[in-house]
Amino acid sequence: MADDLTPEQRRKNMQAIKSKDTSIELRLRKALWENGVRYRKNYNKLIGKPDIAITKYKIAVFCDSDYWHGYDWESRNQKIKSNRDYWVPKIERNMARDKEVTEALQRDGWLVMRFWEWQIKKQLNACIESVLQAVEARKQALKGRDLL
Fold first, then answer.
1. Does the CA dihedral 22-65-44-123 come out positive or negative?
2. Which string of b and e fits 89-115 if b means at least 16 CB within 10 Å?
3. Which residues pair with 65 in a beta bridge?
4. Which residues are registered as beta bridge partners of 62?
5. SS3 53
6. What percent of the chain has pLDDT over 70?
7. What is the CA radius of gyration of the chain?
8. Would strands 59-64 and 40-41 be described as parallel, antiparallel, or unpaired?
9. pTM above 0.70?
10. Average pLDDT, integer, range 128-146
11. Where are the chain's structural domains?
12. For the chain, which terminal residue's Cβ has fewer other Cβ atoms within 10 angstroms, N or C?
């Protein structure tokens, strides 16, 4: 499938893509806030700058775009027809970096939660429930330490 846009149109389209405050981030953050979860956004004191960092409980939440972070990569990478030599390695680097960031944060005691774009759009309540359960589990773990 060839690109339907001119190079200039494609360039403008790519420039418009945000790296923070994306629609999926805003959706998840708003729902968490409404559920009483307080957080830092795009927390630059941590590797990977988590989209949402619940610092009190050391929970880092990432909202991963299906395209840029390689959801269903085995089949999706076959669909990239235009400029494959650039896009395939770029997305694979993103995937490798996501893995490295997750491992580094976990080594530092952080719980890392990653939600795909489609999950936030179609299963927002399940995403919120997962975060709320993680907060509660971390809260209980902290209480247990205080009793020792």
1. positive
2. eebeebbeebeebbeebeeeebbbbbb
3. none
4. 114
5. strand
6. 86
7. 18
8. unpaired
9. yes
10. 91
11. 18-147
12. C
